[in-house]
Design a protein that fits this description.
By secondary structure, the chain is an alpha/beta fold. It is built from 7 helices and 21 strands. The protein folds into 2 domains: 184 residues, FAD/NAD(P)-binding domain, CATH 3.50.50; 118 residues, FAD/NAD(P)-binding domain, CATH 3.50.50.
C-alpha cells in the first residue's frame, strides 16, 4: 500500500524561497516537510559566481544552496528528495502526489517551484539538445574546452553564461535580437572588454546546424532583423539563455496566473486565491527575480502560513 504522510506545512520547491520558508516554518515549530523537486536547489545550482548575496562578496551558487539546505535541516525541517507530480487544492487537507508513490497531505502549502529555462522552440534545437545544445553553461561548459561556442540572449543570464564560457572556449559569440543589452552595467562592461567575446547584434537564430552520425552541433544560422542577411556562425556548442518561465504547471488550472504563468498573490503578502496556499519566489515574481528577493518571499510565506494555521486551530 502506498505511503501517506501528513504535515502542517508542505513546501514544494528548494530554491532560496523554499529553503528560507523551511527555516522559518521550522523555527515556528510547525515541522515542515520540503520536497526538493527535479532540480534540488533551483536555478542557483546551475549558477557559478554570485556577487549580490548579502554577506558574501563572492559565493558559488551550488555552495550557497548546500548551505541553505543544511540550515533548513538544522532548524528541524525535513527535506525530501522527490518530485511532486500532482497537487489537489480543491479541499483541505491538500493532497500532493509524489513520483516515489508517497501521498502527502497538508494543512497548508507553500509553492516555491521557481522557474525553468526558456527555449527557442526550433525543431533543430530540440534535435540537438544534449548533443551541443544546452541551457546551462555551468553544467556543460567544460565539454567545449578549446572550441568555439554561441550564446543567445541579452539579459544577465546570457551575459553570465558568455563570461563563464570564456574559461573554456576559444571564442564566444553572443547573439542578441536588439542593439543594446538588458544586463547590469557592470556585467556589460566586463563583457565588452573581454577579448574572447564577439557580439552579433540585431539577429535571431533560425536553425541549429549539425551532423547526424554522430549527433553534434557544427553551427547556427542567423537572420539579421534589420538587413535581412542570413549568416552561418560556426560553433561546437549553442547555449540558449533567453530567460526563464515560471514552473506553475501544478496549479495552472487551480490558481489565477498572470504575466505568462506567474502565480498571482495578494499585494504585500504571499497569499494566493485559495486560503492556506501560499506562493513565493520566482514562481510569483516577474519583476525582480533575484535570489535575495526570493528568500525574502520565502520568509513571508512561512510567516503567512504560521498565521493561517494559528487561525484555523483556534
Amino acid at each position: 500500500m502506498a505511503d501517506t504522510r501528513h504535515t502542517k506545512v508542505l513546501i514544494i520547491g528548494s530554491g532560496p524561497a523554499g529553503y528560507t520558508a523551511a527555516v522559518y516554518a521550522a523555527r515556528a515549530m510547525i515541522n515542515p516537510i520540503l520536497v526538493q523537486g527535479i532540480q534540488p536547489g533551483g536555478q542557483l545550482t546551475i549558477t557559478t559566481e554570485v556577487e549580490n548575496w548579502p554577506g558574501d562578496t563572492h559565493v558559488m551558487g551550488p555552495d550557497l544552496m548546500v548551505r541553505m539546505e543544511a540550515h533548513a535541516t538544522a532548524m528541524g525541517a525535513e527535506v525530501i528528495s522527490d518530485h511532486i507530480s500532482s497537487l489537489d487544492l480543491s479541499k483541505r487537507p491538500f493532497v500532493a502526489q509524489a513520483d516515489s508513490g508517497i501521498t502527502f497531505t497538508a494543512d497548508a502549502v507553500i509553492l516555491a517551484t521557481g522557474a525553468q529555462a526558456k527555449w527557442l522552440g526550433l525543431p533543430s534545437e530540440e534535435k540537438f539538445k544534449g548533443f551541443g545544445v544546452s541551457a546551462c553553461a555551468t553544467c556543460d561548459g567544460f565539454f567545449y574546452r578549446g572550441k568555439e561556442v554561441v550564446v543567445i540572449g541579452g539579459g544577465n543570464t546570457a551575459e553570465g553564461e558568455a563570461l563563464f564560457l570564456t574559461n573554456f572556449a576559444t571564442k564566444v559569440t553572443l547573439i542578441h535580437r536588439r542593439d543594446t543589452l538588458r544586463a547590469e552595467k557592470i556585467m556589460q562592461d566586463r563583457l565588452f572588454k573581454h577579448p574572447k567575446i564577439v557580439m552579433q547584434w540585431d539577429s535571431e537564430v533560425t536553425e541549429v546546424l549539425g551532423t547526424d552520425a554522430p549527433s553534434s552541433v557544427t553551427g547556427v544560422r542567423t537572420h539579421n532583423l534589420k538587413t535581412g542577411e542570413m549568416k552561418d556562425v560556426p560553433c561546437h556548442g549553442f547555449f540558449v539563455a533567453i530567460g526563464h518561465a515560471p514552473a506553475s504547471e501544478l496549479v495552472k488550472d487551480q490558481l489565477p496566473l498572470h504575466n505568462g504563468g506567474y502565480v498571482q498573490v495578494e499585494a504585500g503578502s504571499t497569499r494566493t486565491a485559495i486560503p492556506g496556499v501560499f506562493a513565493a519566489g520566482d514562481l510569483t515574481d516577474h519583476i525582480y527575480r533575484q535570489a535575495v528577493t526570493s528568500a525574502g518571499m520565502g520568509c513571508m510565506a512561512a510567516l503567512d502560513a504560521e498565521k493561517f494555521l494559528a487561525g484555523t486551530e483556534h
